[in-house]
Design a protein that fits this description.
Layout (H helix, E strand, L loop, with lengths): L10 E3 L17 E9 L5 E8 L5 E8 L6 E2 L10 H6 L3 E10 L2 E10 L2 E9 L6 E5 L5 E6 L9 E7 L9 E6 L6 E7 L11 E4 L4 E3 L2 E11 L4 E10 L7 E4 L10 H4 L7 E8 L4 E8 L3 E8 H10 L1
Antiparallel strand pairs: 1-21, 2-3, 3-4, 4-5, 6-7, 7-8, 8-9, 10-11, 11-12, 12-13, 14-16, 15-16, 16-17, 17-18, 19-20, 20-21
Length: 314
């Protein structure tokens, strides 16, 4: 009989979950979730937190850690642009940061919702103590962008993205190229929601910065499934070709993390596990930072070999 023989837990919830809540911040907040972290060359961890104020207007707030699990929020949030265009583009919300180290600095992508649907802002930073706005890097409506940590052999940057299908809010994962991180094109469709029935049939998007393994680029993505009462956000994984990463080598047809814990099932948006970063240590242990129920920030742990196993066999 043909069915998936799933024989292991790929990602394990950390026992201290949720690792950040609204109560951890120095002023009253409603929620913290869908936050991305990165390990610096000095061995410390920095998280860029999406924080909801009491009226649900967002802030981007830095937090620091020595182990990648327990984070201490800073005294104040990041200063953001104040010009008229930023105020218009981000009028509703700015959210879901993604961090890539390339060219000797951090590149940060932040999605913005406002008067122009969704546009993504590019920031740069030497140390993640402050952020310098560079430009918006798309026309509406495109999101879930992550920059690869290496350029192609021809010197171009690469990013994964999720252009929305007009009127549906759905879309597939694409890959585009750029000579300068501003102008993007030469695009390829990578992964279709229709390829991943059922847990992604309502949509999917790139979630984590690709990590280069001996078998290709490993990515995590989020999949959306509509059911009778809510939408469920789960986590999948895929291996992309090293040299032509728009080609999918292996992909999970089942989620490797899905809402089960109470803090994932109940919150501002129920039934959500939403990954934003994946950190692979030298010993191939993996930390995945994910938001739960659009309310709290969590961590899951795993092994690189298990993630690759799931891509190849599930």
């Amino acid at each position: 009989m043909d069915y998936a023989r799933i024989d292991r837990a790929v990602l394990t919830r950390h026992p201290d979950n949720p690792v950040l809540t609204a109560a951890d911040f120095p002023v009253r907040m409603r929620a913290v979730y869908n936050s991305a972290a990165i390990k610096t060359a000095a061995g410390r961890y920095v998280m860029l937190c999406r924080v909801n104020q009491l009226n649900h207007k967002t802030l981007l707030w830095g937090a620091d850690s020595t182990d990648g699990i327990h984070f201490a929020p800073r005294p104040e949030p990041f200063e953001m642009p104040v010009d008229e265009l930023w105020q218009s583009v981000s009028r509703s919300v700015y959210y879901d940061p993604r961090i890539t180290w390339i060219d000797g600095e951090y590149k940060v992508l932040i999605a913005c919702e406002g008067d122009q649907n969704c546009r993504v802002a590019l920031f740069r930073s030497a140390d993640l103590k402050s952020l310098e706005f560079v430009n918006f890097v798309n026309v509406p409506d495109n999101r879930n962008m992550v920059i690869f940590p290496r350029k192609r052999a021809d010197g171009r940057y690469m990013r994964l993205e999720r252009p929305n299908i007009p009127g549906s809010g759905k879309g597939n994962i694409w890959l585009s190229h750029s000579p300068d991180l501003i102008h993007w094109g030469d695009s390829y469709e990578v992964l279709k929601s229709t390829d991943l029935w059922n847990f992604c049939y309502s949509g999917l998007g790139a979630s984590t910065v690709p990590f280069l393994t001996a078998e290709g680029w490993l990515i995590l993505f989020h999949g959306i499934m509509n059911n009778c009462t809510t939408r469920e956000y789960s986590v999948g994984a895929a291996l992309l070709d090293r040299d032509e990463p728009w080609k999918v080598l292996h992909c999970t047809k089942h989620p490797i993390l899905y809402p089960e814990a109470d803090y994932e099932l109940r919150g501002l948006v129920e039934h959500v596990c939403f990954p934003c970063s994946m950190i692979v240590a030298d010993d191939e242990t993996v930390l995945v930072h994910y938001g739960a129920a659009d309310t709290v920030q969590c961590v899951a742990t795993g092994r690189l070999s298990d993630l690759i196993h799931a891509c190849r066999n599930w």
